[in-house]
Amino acid sequence: MQMTLVPMLKQGLGHTHKAYLWSYSSSEYDEVAAVIYDFAEGRSRHYTREFLTGCAGKLVCDDFSGYKALFKAGRGGTEVGCLAHARRKFDELQKNERSELAAEALRHFAALYNIEREARERKLDADGRCRLRQQRSKPLAESLRQWLVRQRREVEHGTATAKAIDYSIGRWAALTRHIDDGDLPIDNNHLEKRIRPVALGRSNWMPARYEPDSALPMS
After folding, report:
1. Which domain covers residue 201, as residue numbers?
2. Other C-beta atoms within 10 Å of 167: how many?
3. Model pTM?
4. Residues 128 and 145 in one domain
């Protein structure tokens, strides 16, 4: 599941305002390649609640509070974290602050992604991916978790570094859920690729001025 901004032109406003496109898709491992786009005028949790009520299974998503409320209420299935979101925080930290800690974290993440790449190259099925992850990803992930915990003790509260570490530690169970289930992806990048045209269009769209029906010529 993923959410992205879209501009909306509404009668009476005279300018665009923020609306949202909620996207839900099957994973890269599913036989059926499907994606559903659900347009909404807001990002309130009730939009996802209405869509996901009655759904079961496992849902790959980021740490948006609206999603968290669903899981706490027992709706939307089981939370699966997106490792790309956790990695991205360290990538931004390394780019902005030239952080050695962030660079080391990225090396840990790269090792986990290399295993996923190997699984794709070997065309492993779900059972094969699960065995590979159990053998190699699991110890690497635990090593990363222990390293993050150690580093956090040395980092001042409230800093960008602390926030990046806290995101991963706080969501660890969700972020590593894929290791025990070969049907789960390591991240949400499969869906992000499918909403990329929306993100690209956002900077290029020029919504026409809204005209009421009464202004249209009668046939």
Report:
1. 2-58+65-79+192-206
2. 20
3. 0.81
4. yes
